[in-house]
Fold each of these.
Amino acid sequence: EEFVRNDVWELVPLPDGVNVVGTKWIFKNKTDDAGSIVRNKSRLVAQGYSQVEGVDFDETFAPVARLESIRLFLGMACILNFKVYQMDVKSAFLNDILQEEVYVAQPKGFEDPTHPDYVYKLKKALYGLKQAPRAWYEHLTKFLIDTGYVRGTV
């Protein structure tokens, strides 16, 4: 459902000489405080370990905030009596446009019956890809700059 809504991929014939990255389903049970299962979740991920550097991806680096910086920020927010909000971006990586051409195998059990030998050409990042965190960082950075934020120099 998220893949269709976010226009993540398109089914194409397998081009000659490309590396096809496998896919795998990850299943998880969401529980409440008492430990009772409230929802079953599944996520399709790319088997990024089969990607070839320089072929399937170039940049993988994405900056991460240091714990000390987060503590300092929260401490200053408390001192100055600021409200701090937290958010979670649903299916974050499925929003990020890929710079590279990446092809993934059709998920097992969900093969297209009319084109079982086709593969998916990714338009957007998929969890498990080596470059997915970098693509998300670039997407978020562009959004923040377009919204009026200014990139710091430190």
Amino acid sequence: MWDSIRKQTGQILAYGVSMEYIDSNPMRKTIRPKHKEYEVKRKFYTKDELNTLLDAFRDFGNTKQNAFFRLLAYTGMRKSEVLALQWKDIDMFNKELHVNKTVAIDEHKNIIIQTPKTKASRRTISLDKGTLAILNDWKIQQRTEYLKLGYNTSSEEQHVFTTLKNTLYIPNTVNDWLRYILKKYNLPRITPHGFRHTHASLLLEAGESVKVVQQRLGHENSKVILDIYAHITNNAPKKTGQDFADMMAHQ
């Protein structure tokens, strides 16, 4: 009975988060009785599964969420890094973005911006044309939509992803967005961090070197890549940024 009520209430609130009526799902803070987990979350997707999920985000029609998960999928960034991005960090001309900060929650439950914990996490990531186009679409839409709400987002200091009050997102909000789409389109479960695993696995499958993948993901040493991403999926072409986009192309 409890599980049924909790599930239905959670679904209603998750819809509210996905439509941005509310910033976060309060049901996530409730504690359920321990029981066997029936469905195991996937650590990574195959190329086809990733394309299917990204198609679902496009079909859903939320330009902001589509841009957010496109970045996760095509850069291997941490969700906290993406949420901290400002437009000045994205160089459209040179097709790259600079990772130099993250979003975190402090001891008082406040959302803060902090510098990355390691030197390796501060990095520059190459971007493909498709991702840049999606980001540019969101940038234009953000200016129009937020101006109607009374916010001028034209400054390069503006954060790329913010609530309708133009404040930073609680990191777990991203999980709610993803959970809603996975359920709506009946897709295999995966976490936002799973996009990072997927990006690394598919790059290695494409023939990219361990060292390059390590640097792109911001790991301090290659051991992490070798340990965590040893389960690459098969095939093999070559390279980064635009090459990842080419590999992900439907045709």
Amino acid sequence: LEQFIRANRNRTGPQLEREYGNGASLLLARLSAWLRLTYLLGLGVHSLLSAISIFVAASSGSRFLTEFIETGGVITVLDILAVDVLSEADKRAAVLLLHHVANAGRHYKE
């Protein structure tokens, strides 16, 4: 996961789609599901949030943002902020992900 983050940190939506083909959306769905299933354990939350942020913050990647929101990703991230067992670094990564969603425009903020 860390290697994925390093390799894709500054890619745009089209670059991610070209790199992973139709598998980019599937990868985002798997990462989102993995986060939902494991965030209460507190293991790897920061890495998962960082990987998801790559998709959500990608320039011209509104499809990824829409998919993340439609699968309940924002609700999961808000739940992460309320969990006491998670570190401050995990919560900062959650706030950063919410920041990326908010930066996408009013439509996504609501």
Amino acid sequence: QTIAGEHGLDGDGHYNGTSDLQLERLNVYFTHASGDKYVPRAVLVDLEPGTMDAVRAGPFGKLFRPDNFVFGQSGAGNNWAKGHYTEGAELVDQVIDVVRREAEACDCLQGFQITHSLGGGTGAGMGTLLISKIREEFPDRMMATFSVVP
């Protein structure tokens, strides 16, 4: 929501900004889709669908590409090992496929910004697994993590 606002986008992905600089730098975080709409270069991941439903129902839910929501059905029960070795391991290849698709659509991929929790199964367990897989797949790209402490 903050990044969309800083780039002059509304909740539907339409540009309403006033600055040429905003328009010039819009493609750093967003892809120009059909019509006059922009969609975030974002992949949203969780091991259970409830959080994704909340994002979709929110004021910026229509902004995201539906294919970029990747979620499991069972969750990890706030258990790091389940997020890293079992539930997360089953989902990580699907997530990497979506990340790869987004990366291939970039003109000049600079790196990744990852926001995740340091507690629980998805953010900590699957988060560390995903970071290591992205590092394997894109070893020469920058990675910045924004890690939330519970």
